[in-house]
Amino acid sequence: MRCALAAIVLAGAAFAPSALAQAPRAQMSFDQCGVHARAMHERGWPGGTAALMRASTAAELSPERVEARLVALHAELAITRAQERRWADFAQALRSDAGEMQAMMRAQGGSAAPSASLPERLRQRHVLMQRRLHALGRIEHAVGRLYAVLSASQRARAERALEPLAC
Prior knowledge:
single chain, mainly alpha, 0% strand, elongated, disordered N terminus
């Protein structure tokens, strides 16, 4: 089950800028998403949607690491006072997501017995995927609201920094 969890983890707090060339979103391949995830992981930003940023341990989603990432992104995007409320909503969505994922990883840690039947393993995976889908919806909403108040240059920086969220 740990493999299944690793395959669906979205570390919403993964937002390192990527120096990699960006393909149009509609043409972004799973391989390219993996390249983004590796580059972000190497920069200390683990995570991903199924291909997007695999946090291999709950410690990678610690509140301290999430806060450090948020501080860096806030600075990179040059968030203004007028944008702070939308930023706060976005940051809280990422904090919540990281906390939920950390709790799931801790709860999961070895709980899936190898003797679990195929139907039971599929049920467990289904539940995890439903949780991730719900979290992704919250992040999508928060990103949309934040984008609505960003300038064109801030959006360009956000596109580079947050691209892996769209993989």
